[in-house]
Amino acid sequence: MTARDPADVFTRDCPSRATVENVSGKWGILALVALHEGAFRFSALRRRVDGVSERMLSQTLHALERDGLVIRDVRSTIPPHVEYSLTTLGSDMAKRLKAMIDLIEGSMEEILEARREYDSRAGG
Amino acid sequence: MTARDPADVFTRDCPSRATVENVSGKWGILALVALHEGAFRFSALRRRVDGVSERMLSQTLHALERDGLVIRDVRSTIPPHVEYSLTTLGSDMAKRLKAMIDLIEGSMEEILEARREYDSRAGG
DNA sequence: CCGTATCCTTAACGATACTG
DNA sequence: CAGTATCGTTAAGGATACGG
């Protein structure tokens, strides 16, 4: 991973593959895009990302923090107060993910129609 | 999924979640971005997407075809000749995915450095 | 309140043999 | 050539109880 040996996601063991999976995984996308709306505490983020378990959200946030995309700010109060936000890189990533999600959400009727046609040909 | 009931990926059973997973899954991203470079035959695509099994590539392409992102063109010759390409929607999606991949590939040194720091704090 | 540890179930995945 | 079918393994994921 240098100027002479650039990252290439098409290569089997390029470390970029792991980051792509952290970022674009089922919960990674949603966590990043949610945090792009602003900082969240753990429980609030869990409510925002409907359906995620504590275990998976925790795991996802750690992976994103490890890759330098998410900041974890712990205040040593009682009860504990932990706030999650994005780094500059995380914010840039979230913007690009949001662009992808916007396209999907905006094309959902077209996609559902394509599915119906595909299924009627395969199933009928 | 209408103008009054728009898709919302944050909601647990919105059908957009399934498409997000098809598109952003481990092999979905790579297949779409590869096809954005041009049309591919099955075997060539398999070589391009280093590490994918026949089973997973086939499954991935079917899911993307079903969502209206990929076109499968079968020529009834012997031996068979099948060519995969993108629809307009697939092409638009691939562009956005490529933007995400470019950011990751271009930030790989920064990401690896973040990992080293995280690991030295957690592991040391 | 913020998680981690544990257990368990299910689904993803890869290898490979085989067919049109 | 382009897959599908089958099988065995591994990993992801959810529920939940408990610790800091």
Give the secondary structure arrangement, pairings included.
The structure is a homodimer of 124-residue chains.
Chain A: H1 16-24, H2 26-35, E1 40-41, H3 42-48, H4 54-66, E2 70-75, E3 81-86, H5 88-106, H6 108-123
Antiparallel strand pairs in A: 1-3, 2-3
The first copy, chain A, binds a DNA duplex (20 and 20 nucleotides) through helix 4.
Tell me about this structure.
2 copies of one chain form a homodimer. The mean pLDDT of chain A is 95. The radius of gyration of chain A is 18 Å and the shape is globular. The longest helix of chain A has 19 residues, at 88-106. In chain A, helix 1 packs across helix 2 and helix 2 crosses helix 5. Chain A has 124 residues and is mainly alpha-helical. The first copy, chain A, is built from 6 helices and 3 strands; from the N terminus they run H-H-E-H-H-E-E-H-H. The structure holds a DNA duplex (20 and 20 nucleotides).
List keywords for this structure.
three-stranded antiparallel beta sheet; mainly alpha; 60% helix; Arc Repressor Mutant, subunit A; homodimer
Briefly characterize the structure.
The structure is a homodimer of 124-residue chains. Chain A is mainly alpha-helical.
- Indicate the mean pLDDT of chain A: 95
The CATH architecture of chain A can be named as Orthogonal Bundle
Ends apart, CA distance between termini of chain A? 50 Å
Q: Helices and strands of chain A, in N-to-C order?
A: HHEHHEEHH
Strand fraction band of chain A? 5-15%
Helix content of chain A: 55-70%
Assembly state here? homodimer
Total tally of structural domains of chain A: 1
State the name of the first-level CATH class of chain A: Mainly Alpha
Largest sheet: spatial strand order of chain A: 1-3-2
**From the alpha-carbon coordinates, what is the Rg of chain A to the nearest angstrom?**
18 Å
Structural class of chain A: mainly alpha
How many DSSP E strands of chain A? 3
CATH topology of chain A: Arc Repressor Mutant, subunit A
Shape verdict of chain A: globular
Unreliable stretches covering 5 or more consecutive residues of chain A? none
Specify the biggest β-sheet of chain A: 3 strands, antiparallel
The most extensive contact between chains is: A-B, 53 and 53 residues
Q: Can you say what the CATH homologous superfamily of chain A is?
A: Winged helix-like DNA-binding domain superfamily/Winged helix DNA-binding domain
Number of helices of chain A: 6
